[in-house]
Amino acid sequence: MRSTYFLLVMFLSNQFLFSQDHIHWGSTGDPLNGLTITWHASSLSSTGDQIKWGYTTAYEQGAFSVDHRNDYSGYLFDYTFPPLNANATIHYKIYTEDDWCHATRTFQTSTDPSSTQFSFIAGGDSRSNLSDWQTAANWLASESTDFHLFMGDHVNSGTATTDWNYWYNNGVNFLEGNLLYHTAGNHEYGSIYLNQFVMPANEKWYSFEFGNALFICLLSEEDFATQHIWLLDQLSSTAKTWKIVFFHKPFFTTGSHVDDMTAYRDTWWQAFDDYGVDVVLGAHVHYYLRSKPINLNVSSTAAVAEYGSEPGEGRLQIISGSYGAPLYDVGTGWFIEENISTMNYAKFEINDNVLTMNAYNMVGSLLDNVTLSKNPAGIHEPEATIISEFRLSQNYPNPFNPTTTIRYSLNQTSAINLSIYDVTGRLIKMLGNTQQSPGAHSVHWNGIDDQGSPVNTGVYFCRLEVGALSQTIKMLYLR
């Protein structure tokens, strides 16, 4: 009772001393293009709320009016910066409730989003234990990284406004100094969560690019079918070297949440395997887990030989789920490489074609690490891959259901025709009829014919025609 009273007094004191609070950072795009600061105040300024900022304490960029919206108490204010300088310090002051509040504050911007050398941290589940969340937040504030992926379950109850107040107040050192991309968990998802944070697109699921990586945020609470269609479009249209997906509920875990995502293995995880997603990030179960390489196109009961995005290689799933939530016990399973019950976070460093993940506890001790490496001349950079001959490779997987990948290479710019035929020689599906540049190419076929109907189980032939030349492979579709 006494500790609760102390927290309440401290909270009310903070509200009295500071007319704005809950400062946090989001982005409508990458970390330098769309960076947005958000803060809370109990009332509006009579002359209009503003922010002044610059790269020096002279605030040489000027003073700007800001937008406001209703919060669960008072208002939230947003200011989206113009494109910013990389690796720079922003100096700013906020004018709200008729006062330029506090002394000058600072924020450090990320490296250039076109750089292929950058870092980010993934973790979440800060709910329940406020002192542990404060410990985690203070430690994370000492880390240097370009941005964070926050993996959900910010608070214990998304409708409890006191939970949100305590979350902001206990995490203030971290939240005021770092850019976070959020995904929602089962504990806080709802109107207050969606109103708090500025994120890309519809803020429920979205993507952004940084360097040679595509980041895809999914929502593991609803709209799975809609997201699946969107996910396929995102994965099929990117040429980025690294593909990283993050959402709250993991596919492969132990204990009471073991089957939370099983129903979506044939949709979401199928897309991860078919398009060679490199890293799948989750939280939800309040421990650290690194999976063995998982490829369900190969086996649903055993790991494959190595991590990677090539056919037959496996996904790296990382669960980093304890910024303050009650710790879960470790478990057993064919998919587990490392499993540790402790507060933790996962720090990723990408250096062109090398990705390194180091997992730490909240005093900086190394828990686990893994490195993924890609051939610079691999399929992720087809424009640089010049093949000495025209070649159609065997599809993978084969047999397949429902999707297979067909790869081919050209030695020069050519007009190509890529088509699927049945055993009678009837044209089933035209996959490509266009001019293409030299290098490696790939397309995906989902067993749907040109009329939009699923084909029957059986043998099909894929023919690649380049001028007067052609090559054919045989494929087996199983429904």
Structure report:
With 479 residues, this protein is α+β, with helices and mostly antiparallel strands. The chain is 15% helix and 36% strand. The chain has 3 domains: 18-108, Sandwich (Immunoglobulin-like); 117-373, Purple Acid Phosphatase, chain A, domain 2 (4-Layer Sandwich); 382-477, Immunoglobulin-like (Sandwich). It has helices spanning 2-17, 130-142, 161-170, 172-175, 191-196, 224-237, 265-274, and strands at residues 20-27, 35-41, 50-54, 62-65, 67-70, 75-80, 89-96, 99-108, 117-123, 147-150, 180-182, 206-210, 213-217, 242-246, 279-282, 288-291, 316-320, 336-340, 345-351, 354-360, 366-373, 391-392, 404-410, 414-422, 427-436, 439-445, 458-466, 469-477. The strands form 6 sheets. A 7-stranded mixed beta sheet has the order 12-13-14-15-17-16-18, covered by helices on one side.
Query: What structural class should be given to the helix and strand makeup?
Result: alpha+beta
- Biggest beta sheet summary: 7 strands, mixed
User: In oligomeric terms, what are we looking at?
Assistant: single chain
What is the number of strand segments? Answer: 28
- CATH homologous superfamily of the largest domain - what is it? Metallo-dependent phosphatases
